[in-house]
């Protein structure tokens, strides 16, 4: 397999519902790519990040990925969610074109550390810059390149907030990009298990952080922000494949 379009795939699953952000509740198949240029302290998808899981990632052609999406969806076109890892480090342009030709739509989640021309072909670009609690430092020039590369594609900000410092940072980022809708998402503290066993998260902790975040936004009268939990984590815990 030596095609330039070879995609490193961690998992393909669904249909399920999109559990986060602008498309919450929308039925979707997930394609999670393997490999990430970040190492967020609280990443809930380490099986698609850490190199110790590399031998579980599979090189696939766009045609093979599309065949799996079609099998899972029974051929009915739906939203495909590209996540990872950082899906922007994979050559996904050909897959997006192939799928859109069959009526599928494509949303992609990325931290905004790698810009791609094909972002403009997406049906939605979800930019999720990483706050201080992640331990990562955003390169704002590259982030701006990502926003610019998306051009006509609808783009939104989805920012994870664990604490007051993250919250203030999110306000600042929103101020830099007044044209992008902002989704605030409370962080979940439980790291995922290496296998498929459900790891029920600390629901009280999630509820409390969600309430705190709502209170914070209302207190600031930040009425253009939307505050959403990770619905799939509330329903199934930090489990893989849902
Ligand atoms: C696993 S990441 C993969 C895509 C890309 N690398 C990114 O971070 O945007 C998908 C989404 O999950 C969020 N996320 C990761 N770990 C989380 C956690 N512990 N709590 C809440 N959201 C989390 C990320 O911020 C991102 O918005
Ligand atoms: N249902 C569901 N919604 C999600 N939204 C973002 C996810 C991700 O891990 O990227 C995710 C996920 O893994 N499952
Ligand atoms: S950028 Fe995304 S996938 Fe990469 S470590 Fe951070 S949360 Fe995980
Ligand atoms: Mg997730």
TrEMBL record:
CC cofactor note: Binds 1 [4Fe-4S] cluster. The cluster is coordinated with 3 cysteines and an exchangeable S-adenosyl-L-methionine.
Binding positions ([4Fe-4S] cluster): 36, 40, 43
GO MF assignments: 4 iron, 4 sulfur cluster binding; carbon-nitrogen lyase activity; magnesium ion binding; S-adenosyl-L-methionine binding
Involved pathway(s): Purine metabolism; 7-cyano-7-deazaguanine biosynthesis
Keyword Glycoprotein in annotation: no
Keywords noted in UniProt: 4Fe-4S, Iron, Iron-sulfur, Lyase, Magnesium, Metal-binding, Queuosine biosynthesis, S-adenosyl-L-methionine
Ligand binding (S-adenosyl-L-methionine): 42-44, 85, 128-130
Domain called Radical SAM core: residue spans: 23-238
Broad EC category: lyase
Catalytic activity entry: 6-carboxy-5,6,7,8-tetrahydropterin + H(+) = 7-carboxy-7-carbaguanine + NH4(+)
Coiled coil: none
Residues annotated for substrate binding in this entry: 17-19, 32, 83
Domain of life from the UniProt record: Bacteria
Residues annotated as binding Mg(2+): 45
Keyword Phosphoprotein on entry: no
Known cofactor(s): Mg(2+); [4Fe-4S] cluster; S-adenosyl-L-methionine
EC number: 4.3.99.3
Gene Ontology BP terms: tRNA queuosine(34) biosynthetic process
HAMAP family per UniProt: QueE (MF_00917)
Family, as annotated: Belongs to the radical SAM superfamily. 7-carboxy-7-deazaguanine synthase family.
Function: Catalyzes the complex heterocyclic radical-mediated conversion of 6-carboxy-5,6,7,8-tetrahydropterin (CPH4) to 7-carboxy-7-deazaguanine (CDG), a step common to the biosynthetic pathways of all 7-deazapurine-containing compounds.
Assembly with partners or alone: Homodimer.
Protein name as annotated: 7-carboxy-7-deazaguanine synthase
Protein species of origin: Roseovarius marisflavi
Gene for this chain: queE
